[in-house]
Amino acid sequence: MLNACLAWLRQRFALPPEDLLRDRVYRRLWTSILISSIGGQITLLALPLTAAVLLHASPTQMGLLTAMEIAPFVLFSLPSGVWLDRVRKLPVYVVGELSMGLALLTVPIAHWMGWLGMGWLYGVAFLLGCCYTIAGSAAQIVLTQVVPRERLVEAHAKNALASSGPEVVGPAVAGLLIKLVGAPLALAVDALMLALSAAILKGIHVVEHLSERSGAGFREELAVGLRFVRSQPLLPVLAATVGGWQLCHNAALVVQILFATRELGMSSSAVGLSYVGLGVGTVLASVFGHRISERLGPGPCLVTGIAISALGWGVLALAPLGPWGVAAFAAMLSLFGVGAVLIFINFLSLRQAVTPQPLLGRMTSTMRWLILLPAGPGALLGGWLGEHFGLRSALGFACGAGLLLAAVAWRSATISGVRALPKIDHDAAAAAA
Fold this sequence. Notes:
- The chain has 433 residues and is mostly helical.
- 82% of the residues lie in helices and 0% in strands.
- It is built from 18 helices and no strands.
- Helix 6 runs antiparallel to helix 7, helix 9 runs antiparallel to helix 13 and helix 11 packs across helix 13.
- The protein is globular, with a radius of gyration of 21 Å.
């Protein structure tokens, strides 16, 4: 009887023969993302809670903290893309994971030594941003070396599931951990997770054939990447759309923890428990995002994600005090999770689908630079609005601007007309070079 039950379970939950997770290399990459995401849930709460609760940061200081994490994208994205097209990407990815772990480990050490202040957190946020800028771009390119291009939406959806799975239970566990040992010491756990993720990545075998150097200088190669992005009708419009969403997202992000702790009176553990809503939203979008994208098309699916996340910020802006306000905070996180996954599984797939392999580094860094240029001003604007007009005003701005952005994008045939992944235009690539 037991054997029959086990056989039924194996048959019921067995992966389809063509599932990407049956590929050993992709499965190892996916596992690394899963482990890194578990630790990331701790940092997602512990870093802003250290600033807001332990160091009593103002809304403007919270905006500066977010802006310091974004600044490396503006400063280093473009040159890092040229460099990435010259080197192997997997080692860069591994070193980035280890570097983030070391940066986070300095926070509990500084707290123990009595050195911890907002200046220290600004420095850690800047170092994290540097790693996200360089190693994050390398990670996106590594995926294209493991997965066929026609399956990129599916791969990004599975990666989103690896990231969102921990978001269901991770925030509650992170909130409990922060309550038990404090936010600074909790960051050491994420450092350990990142070290384990790097160890798994180091064992991946990726065959990468570096392109022959053209003999062009650094500035010439940088210009080729910029010209390629400009030459593609889709890429500049995508950059403007997702960049506008980043402005709205960061304006809301810098005040939402302050709103929860100061307006709604939530404890660190209650905030962590509410972040389960984010996990539920991202899991749902990760599971069904590929099918939704196939049904609507990548472009309309991306625009739908912008509208859903904007509605979430509106829910919190109008939230009453008391239990219904706490429920609105969890609902906002859930709607944001759904929207963000629908945006990025399509955004990443679209930009990678139209780019030849030798230009992936420069395209990735250029697009990340373009979409994050508005993020810093968005964070500063959200902090300024929250400090001078109340925290709800920043959330209301994010909602209104996000819905306007979705309406404009829906009327753009360049985005809403994309019903399938486009192909590489080799003539445009050659013209850019």
